[in-house]
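step=encode ok
step=design start
structure_in=
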């Protein structure tokens, strides 16, 4: 989006009472300050809108069909933040507006999630304008962009590089599940990196799970403890990451479906391609995987997937065992989050000597950092969940240069979809 069109969108919103900002929920305490960030200014745009202790600039970090993410800051501390603006008022062009219900759902999930080193925190939420049609979510700024960019930049990555990153992702997902939240759209695009980096050669990359717009927050149990189990039926997520039971429009357990999606993320990071294009009968890979798991339950699914392309599997035995457990088509046979956390690969990783067992993987610490605001963040899918532009995933029958050797489904950007599901049993 060019500056002119963004400014026009900004001015149109302001013209309808955008300057009237009321807090829909209290913001948290000011972010941690540092001497060189105290009173800092926002480069690349002048402050135009004030909301509580924050101010937003017209410097765009990402944009979608009905939402924008702007660079902002906490006025007292000078610490930069990302401000996600969503307009529920249809535009003159007829473009669909953001769903009020979806926004309320995301805000409620973010508030319940609270603060965790591996989950993007919401610092404040405001409804703007005389009619409150514009919503503003003030989020912590992750200047490293998406985990998706790592695969685009490096391709398949070594286990020793992925191990500490996956430990952080796992810690974040476990925290969400502990809070009764099933994410339902775990994918590489929805895992952000706390800070930028030049080379992937250390364990300082801190992942943070983002975008709870499709999440489901379970109600409290009848005894007031824990969370009430509920079979979900809504189809939602991104096709190459969706669990088979979700793709089949069957009733499903949100936590178990997250395990499949997490397995797809891990497989993609260490392999450089998706295990299947989509977990449905439309994909021959999935059909063969399904047949093998039924006929030979103890055979390795990971090795089978590599054999589709005449490729030797380069992964360690411990990682293959973990992936095989996460990519089980039958939900009841899929490993749980607890089993993932206690798996050999998560505990020992690429290290020669095993670490003492621990209930959770090592969590990455939150740390202050100097924000480089010039970084370009691609947040298109995070902002726009419409199906405009057609399918973005590869054909399930796409072949490589050698017709005898099918091409693996390469990692590509995925649009999230959602619809009302129906249980078929």
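sequence_out=
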């Amino acid at each position: 989006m060019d500056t002119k069109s963004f400014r026009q969108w900004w001015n149109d919103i302001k013209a309808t009472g955008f300057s009237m900002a009321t807090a829909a929920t209290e913001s948290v305490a000011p972010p941690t300050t540092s001497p060189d960030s105290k009173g800092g200014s926002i480069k690349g745009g002048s402050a135009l809108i004030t909301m509580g202790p924050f101010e937003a600039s017209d410097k765009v970090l990402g944009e979608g069909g009905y939402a924008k993410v702007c660079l902002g800051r906490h006025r007292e501390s000078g610490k930069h933040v990302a401000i996600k603006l969503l307009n529920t008022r249809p535009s003159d062009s007829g473009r669909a507006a953001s769903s009020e219900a979806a926004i309320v759902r995301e805000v409620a999930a973010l508030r319940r999630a609270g603060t965790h080193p591996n989950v993007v925190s919401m610092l404040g939420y405001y409804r703007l304008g005389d009619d409150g049609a514009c919503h503003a979510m003030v989020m912590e700024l992750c200047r490293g962009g998406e985990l998706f960019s790592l695969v685009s930049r490096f391709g398949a990555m070594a286990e020793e590089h992925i191990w500490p990153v996956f430990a952080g992702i796992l810690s974040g997902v476990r925290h969400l599940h502990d809070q009764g939240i099933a994410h339902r759209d775990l994918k590489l695009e929805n895992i952000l990196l706390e800070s930028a980096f030049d080379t992937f050669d250390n364990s300082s990359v801190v992942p943070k799970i983002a975008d709870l717009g499709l999440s489901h927050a379970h109600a409290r149990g009848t005894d007031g403890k824990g969370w009430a189990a509920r079979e979900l039926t809504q189809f939602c997520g991104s096709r190459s990451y969706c669990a088979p039971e979700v793709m089949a429009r069957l009733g499903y357990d949100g936590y178990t479906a997250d395990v499949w999606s997490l397995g797809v993320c891990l497989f993609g990071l260490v392999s450089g391609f998706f295990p299947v294009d989509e977990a449905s009968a439309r994909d021959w890979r999935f059909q063969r995987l399904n047949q093998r798991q039924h006929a030979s339950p103890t055979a390795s699914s990971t090795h089978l997937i590599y054999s589709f392309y005449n490729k030797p599997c380069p992964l360690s035995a411990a990682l293959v065992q973990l992936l095989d457990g996460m990519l089980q088509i039958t939900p009841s046979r899929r490993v749980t989050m607890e089993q993932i956390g206690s798996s050999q690969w998560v505990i020992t990783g690429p290290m020669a000597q095993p670490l003492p067992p621990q209930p959770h993987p090592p969590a990455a610490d939150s740390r202050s950092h100097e924000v480089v605001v010039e970084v370009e963040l691609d947040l298109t899918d995070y902002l726009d969940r419409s199906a405009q532009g057609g399918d973005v995933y590869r054909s399930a029958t796409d072949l490589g240069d050698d017709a005898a050797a099918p091409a693996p489904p390469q990692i590509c950007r995925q649009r999230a979809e959602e619809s009302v599901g129906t249980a078929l049993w």
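step=design ok
step=annotate ok -> The chain has twelve helices and 13 strands.
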